[in-house]
Every structure is written in C-alpha cells, then in structure tokens.
Amino acid sequence: MAETAAEQEEVLTDLEIVTGAKEPKPKIGDVKAPELTGSIKVPKIQPGAAAGYKPYPAAPEYMEGMDFPTTLVDNWEKEAVNKLGELLKKYKSLQDYMDICVRCGSCTDKCQFFLGSKDPKNMPVARADLLRKVYKKYFTTEGKLLGKIAGAERFDLELLGEWFSYFHQCSQCRRCSVFCPYGIDTAEISMAAREIMDHIGVGQKYVNSIIIKLHEIGNNLGMNPKALKATLESTEEDIEEEDGVPVKLPVDQVGADILMVTPSADFFASPHVESLIGYAKVFHQAGISWTFSSTASEAGNFGMFIGNYSHMQRAASRIRKAIEEIRPKRLIVGECGHAWRIAYSFWNTLIGPLDQSLGLDPKYPRPQHICEFTLDLVKRGAIKLDKSANDEFVPTFHDSCNVARGSRMGDSPGGQFDIPRELIKASCNRYVDMEQETIMEKTFCCGGGGGLLTDEILDVRLQGAMPRMQAYQNIKDSHGANFFALICAICKAQFTKVFPKYGMPMIEVGGVHQLVGRAIELGAKE
Amino acid sequence: MSFDFEGKTYETDDDGYLINLDEWNEGVAGYIAEQEGVEMTEAHWEVVNFLRNYYQEYNIAPAIKILIKEMKKMFGPEKGNSAYLYDLYPAGPALQACKIAGLPKPTGCV
Amino acid sequence: MSGLTIFFVIYAYVAILFFIAGFLYRIWKYASTPAPLKIPQTPAPVAAPGVARRMVAEVTLFKSLFNGNKIIWLFGYVFHLGLLVALLKHYRFAFDYSPSWLVYLTTFELYAGLIMLGGLMMLFLLRLVVDRTNFITVMTDYILLVLLIGIAGTGLLLKHFYRTDVTSVKEFVLGLVSFNPQEMPADAFFIIHITLVFLLLIYFPFSKLMHSGGIFFSPTRNQVDNARDKRLVTPWAAAPESIQIASNMTQEEG
C-alpha cells in the first residue's frame, strides 16, 4: 500500500528544471535588502550566489499568444542554434560582440547586479560568455577545434538553466558598455538570448503576459478605453478639487495639436499619476490643445526587452495608427525610460518616417520628450513656476538608464542629463546631485528595468538597487536630500517597492513633473 | 497552482491570485486574508467590495487615487488616505486587497 | 636551399595567406551584417566628424578602458604601444629604404620591447590574481599571452642579447617579400621567433585578436546620434505595409 518516497516524487519536465518552476519562491515580506555599507564596494566573488533567482516561466497561453512554442521543443538545441545563426546575420552588434571581447575585465565591477549579488556570472563579460560559449561551439572554427580550451561549450539543459537565471538578471541598462574598450553592449546580447529562449519555448511570464495585454487591450496595464476615460475623469476632478482650475485630460480628440503618449502606469499608479497631473497642468497653462489616444495608451514597449523585433514593431504601430487618426502636429512622450529610448531611437525606423507625410510639424523634434517640451515653455516664459511651492524638498535626480545611455534630449549630446536637471531647478529652490560615479552616463540602473519588475525576483531587484540606494543614502546624509526625482515608470514602481526595504520612506519617490505640477502657476497669464 | 478550501479546489496563478473570479465568495476571501495575515474588519470588507464592484464594471482594478477617493467617501476624510489603506493592507492594495478580492494581480510598470 | 629554409618559406606564405584571407573574411562579415536599429551608446556625437573623433580616442588612447579600469589600461596600453614600435621597426626588414623618423624611433626599441613584455606579463598576472578576471579567463587567453610573451621575449633576445646576423635576416625577409626566397639564418632564437609569429598570424583571424578590426564596426560606438532626423532603414527591418492591430479594441466599449 505505502508508496515509496521515490514514487511520490514528482518527475520534473525539462522546462521545469530549466526555469525552476517548481522551486519555492521567496515570500515578498521575507525578502531582505543587502546591507548598505557606506560606500559601493567591489565584492569578492561568490560563485552561484544568484543562480537560484529565476522569474516565472510564461504559461502556455502566454507563449501561444506571442506565437512562440508553448513548451520546450524536443529538438531545442538545434532550434536554438538555428535561431542564433539567424540573429547573427541580422544584428551587426551581436556578430561583432560575439567575436571581439578580449575578456580584459574592465566591465567586471560595473554591473549593479554583480555588485549587489556578488555572483560572478552577473559580471557583464561572464553573462555574455553564457551566449558566447554556444556561439563558439557551433559557429567558430576556434571553438569547434579547441572546445573548452577556447571557452566553447555544448548547449545543454544546465547551460539553458543558467541562461534563464542570468539573462533575467540583466536589466539591459548598458552601463557595462560605457566602460568596454569596444563598446560591447550586454543589452544586445541579453536581448538575443531571450529571443532564442522564447523561440524554443522558454519564455518569461511577466514580460510576455504584458506584451499580450498591450497587443489585445492597448496598454501594459490592460486598461480598456472605458476604464481609461473613467480614470482620467476622476483625475480631472481631483485636480479641480485641489487647485480650483478645470484642467482637462482629453482622450481621442481628433485634430488636437499634440498627441501625448505616456506609460499607462501614469494613469493608474502612485506616484506616477502625480506626473500625469503635472503634464496636464503644463498643457493647460501653455494653452495648447492636446490629447491621449485610447488605442495608443501606452508608451512602453516590452518587445525590446525580449529582443523581438516584430512584437516591438507591432506594439509601436499603435502609435502610428493613432497619429493617422488624430492627425496631431506634434508627438510628445511622457516619463518612461525604455519608452523614450524606443521613441527617440527606434520609432523613426519602426513606424516612420515621422514627418510631414503623417502631418507632423517639422519645426519640432519628432518625437519630443515632455521634459524638452516643458523646459522650452519655461525658458520662453510661456509658463511660470513658483519654486517656493517645493521648498520642503531637496531633490536629487536619478538618471534612468535607457534615457541616459540610449537616447538624447535637446540638440546637443548630454541634453538628456541637463534638461531634466534644469527643469527640476526651475521648479525647486534646492537641488543636489549624487556622486559623480553614479550619475549621468555612469548612472546605475534602478534594478527593475529590462523586464525584471516582477515580485518573484524581488531579491534580484533589491540587489540591483543596492548601488543606487547607497548613493542616495549618502546624499541624504551629506545634503539632506529627500526627494528622489525620476522620469521613468519602471524606476518609480521599482523604487517605491525597494525604498521601504532599505528603510527609506516610499513618499520620497516621485516624478520630475510632479515637482513641475506643484510649482506651476495656474490661472490667467499677464 | 491551486489551494483547497472547504472541500473545493481553487485554481490560482503563480502568486496565489484566483484564476476564476466567479469562484470568489466571502469564505474564500477570508481564507486568503488569513494566509496573508490580514484580519478582516468591516473596513476591509468595504474596500474589497468596492474593488470587486469596480472590477465588474471596468474589467480592471481601480487606480489607487480612485480607491482612496472612494475610501474618503466611505470612511470620511481622516481615513481617506493611503496611510489608512496601508494600515488595512500592509503589503499594499495591489498585493493584498486585490488578492483577497479575487482580482488578478495588477501588473505593468506598477 | 636547405630543407629548413624550404619549410619556413612555405610556412611563412601559408601563415600570411591565412592571416590576410581570414582577417578580410571576418571584416567582410562585420561590414556586411546589417545594424537594423540606432543603438549608439549616448551621449554620442550628433555628426560623423564627432564619431571619427570618438573612434580615434578609443583606438589611440583606449579612453573607455581608461575610465573603466586604470590598472588594466596601463598594462594594456604599454603592451600595445610597445607592440606598435616593434611592428614599425620591423619595417626595415621588409624594405630597402627606411624613413628617418622610423630610424629615430628604433633608438627606443629596447625600451619599447621591454614595456611590451612587462605589460604582457602583468596582464598575465592580473588573470591569475584578481578573482574577477581569473573567473572569466579561458585557456586561450593564457595561450595568447604566452605566445605574445614568447614573441616579444625572443625578439628582445635575438636583437639585444644574442645578436643575430641582421643582414642575413633582412635578406631572408626581403626574399620573402619579393617572392624570391633566400637562405634563412639558422639561428635558434630567430627560428623560435618566426615560428611563433607565424603561428600567431594563423590563429589571429580565428581569435579574439579580431578586436583590432572589429572595434570599428561596434554600433554603440560608430553610429551617429541622429535617429530623430535621419531615418535608419535596413532591408530586413523595414516597416511592413500594415501591421495587425488587435481587433477587440473598440471605441464602443467606452
């Protein structure tokens, strides 16, 4: 009668082994942040320290909805190699970066996930080598002849398991690339690895389920047009109650001068919504007609995170469709880091040309960042800001990785650093910067970008946030900073989650346009 | 994933959120609350009921601001704020209140 | 002609052929693979001259490496600098005439050779003692360093310590260059030196040494930051005529 333990033991499928699907996940309440030690130290390596952190695999329905295989395909090794071969022909970056790394070591202490986890496979070169091993084995003479001596390895289940762990501990923030003598960009490599995994049936639930919501409903949140309109109306009421001014948040206004595309979190979450109110007040006071689109109610585009060109293009084409319907003269993007990279760097390619053929006015940048737009109004005197409204704050600005290293604002290089700072300084009497080694192009990622903003890997997120939290703690201690200003929806969500874990008040996390919205003088212009 | 409660099996997602909203009842809500370490009071139920009603109309949980505004109506201005919301549901409205109300977990950049 | 000479003449031509053909093939591969998206690592130059300046700073000063790690930069830089001087001074073996600046440069060749050797040895040491660098090192990284150390070491020995007959070396090399092979000097250090050099040339296109050419094709560094002004379109990534927008998005809902 009695079943033996062996009989009771569940037989795990290969997919479950790779993704750790049956491993218990930590309880969110129990997850602890690494201790802050006073400075960002380079740790001694601890091999395997982060090997167990894996996101949920995408359930079959989330794979099917993306046109990926629903489970690990039988001949996955061959399929993966074929896909890699295809990507090598499609992406110069991948082909070049597979070949030219000399493993000099410059990047080894630059990744926030290594600094936080101490796991050497979170060093950018070691992460990239997880893919490079496979490249060498199947695509290079060196690897075929010399094998392990040249760092070539067969793509087996164990290595695939490492891919699932460590390519989901990269936020594609490109910090490593800044310090690489050849500009090797681990983001490109981790995108390729995720694309390969999806194509053999190993997907990540958080990202894939959100892309499906975006395709089906129109935004990452899954907020349908009816809910969107109700939410915006409620926000209008809030503003009027607070300020006594009927500031509008229009939707689907055909012929409006400006089409505003913002991350859907701005409609829904706090503190994101405070920036949404800020944008609305800016448009109101500038007296320019503007609108959201209920079919393009998302600036974010997670297609980039999984390196899938067609999903990224399909998601972006909602914006093009909205431009064709609304016929705006200008296109403005709200506070969202990866969205701004895609808008600034990719939209013209994906859904362009963004020019007169679509009715857009060539006088203005297409697209334009909301910070570019607002600062221009401030400089021209078209809106007035009362800095004293923010006297309780000593803000500091966290450069979001995708904005800092993957885009620009304004006409000259580095505008993406200066313009948000100038805007904060125009809204507040005080401003301080964190340590130079942690800001601008050397900024640390929040720890939640690139599709990592999901609770089952909260450990990874907390470890990744460590360098930034250390720098913020230091500026708090030395200069009394008490407002952590952001221009990214993922950063906002990530930091509201990790601040309390680091013993800091969640309320200090906010948006740049939250400060603008508080300082702006509403009412008649002189 | 799933859990058993009073002889019935409830399918959940990876984080323990009910898959089938129609299976929800106050009993199972109480059970989830217990697992979460939340003791349900009248105020807790009011939040849960509002979430469910909102979801039934809009197919999504309400924005936090909307929830707080509603709490202002329900409990008066001194309790219509996010501090009180976090008093009720320490892990946050998305993580706990939605879970107990049988709503799916809000995801996105939130 | 001696058997030794015949062997080395064939070896030399095979190695040089491998090197040139392999190098060009790899470069062709980098050059011909499309870059579908604008991915310059910003802040990036907004026009082509700026990109050229950025590249020059990387290639001549190893600027990013300098920002990343001063120790690796120092040893890497002196090694490459020593290598450059060493390569330049070899010019006179292959041609009858040497420009005067090159002759001047050779007055430093001993120091150049020594810093090259020292840099290589320190790079080897770093791989052994720094835990992070040790973790990422694979066997071929050591092998390449040993190969280079061997080349630099024998080069120094045969030039400055156990002087080889320079005239007969020059005759041999000139013979190779003019496809008119001459007897090679049967000098032990010289034989080891060129054996290693040609081995390196053969291995070069298959190895990470392709960073020497590949650096120029790195999109994060060679792209102009002008995505808003100039549309980048590559054939495979061109926008399709129409993309399906999900159908259950209806205005009636609202």
- The rounded distance between the terminal residues' Cα atoms of chain C is 93 Å
Tertiary shape of chain B? globular
| End-to-end distance of chain B | 24 Å
Q: Biggest sheet of chain B, open or closed, and with what strands and sense?
A: 2 strands, antiparallel
Mean pLDDT of chain B: 92
Name of the CATH architecture of chain B: Orthogonal Bundle
Helix content of chain C: 55-70%
Topology of chain C as a string of helices (H) and strands (E): HHHHHHHHHHHHH
Strand content of chain C: under 5%
CATH fold-level name of chain C: Fumarate Reductase Cytochrome B subunit
Low-confidence stretches of chain C: 244-254
**Greatest interface and its residue counts?**
A-C, 92 and 73 residues
Structural class of chain C: mainly alpha
Give the CATH level 1 class of chain B: Mainly Alpha
The total of helices of chain C stands at 13
- Using the CA coordinates, give the radius of gyration of chain B: 13 Å
What is the name of the CATH superfamily of chain B?
Answer: DsrC protein, C-terminal domain
- Which sequence of strands runs across the widest sheet of chain B? 1-2
